[in-house]
Amino acid sequence: MNRGIRRAVPAAVFGLALCGQDFAHYVSEKIGTGYRFTEGPAWSKDGYLVFSDTPSDRLLKWVPGRQPEVFREAAHGPSGNAFDAQGRLYTCETRARRVTRTERNGSIEVVAERWEGKRLNAPADIVVSKSGHAYFTDPAFGYQQDHRELDFYGVYHIPPRGSIELVARPAGRPHGVALSPNGRILYVSNADEHNIRAYDLERNGEVSNERVLISSITGVPGGVTVDEKGNLYVAANGIAIYNPQGQLLHTIEMHEAASSCVFDEFDMRYLFVTSRGTVYRMHPAEP
Could you give all domains of the chain from N- to C-terminal order, each with its CATH number? Predict the structure, then answer.
């Protein structure tokens, strides 16, 4: 398996009229390939990308200009990742059926593992607000269905202090999760219903006003991210881009289904996309 950087060839150019970034085109380049199934890209304010190779049980780290390197082995089936404002890494561990937080000194703390005494299903994706409120999804896919202790799929809130809270119990399996730029709206993709739900958030992290914002998504929606204008980027059959009102603006077509995506936090110029065996960086084409 070759895990090094591939030559950054403009593999495809994608038109993005009306995109929140006001880009005329995207150029796609591979930053790593040869993996089994990549997920959970998360950008650190320290200038690097972390992503999961779930079946290989590893977290990987990519620093611009370098080859991807192993960040953590034996990572308990990592899926979604997110950094908080303090630079701590939250990881959904599907095999251990828990959420952990890696401190900046490298120590690891379990922050969510059970609900009302029963083990979680298999946390999939997570997002953390600037004020430290974390939200994660807890579906179950494949063999995970056979080991469930809970009879529902959930969306949970981890407050900065206190115990986790159940905020939604959708009929289908919740998957990706994201926050609006102002942190006042929570977005959750649903793999079974092929939609995106939106929830209003209070300052204390409480959730209200559940509604379906986007329906009839082509493909199975996974990870979700937003740009600075609040447009949603949904990983499914490629990357579907919607405005904050849920209207489809454009679809970035890809040769394989996308699993998740995230922007860098410097200037929102680069969109990182995980797929099956490859991680891509998409950026504006030169004029």
Answer: 13-284 (2.120.10.30)
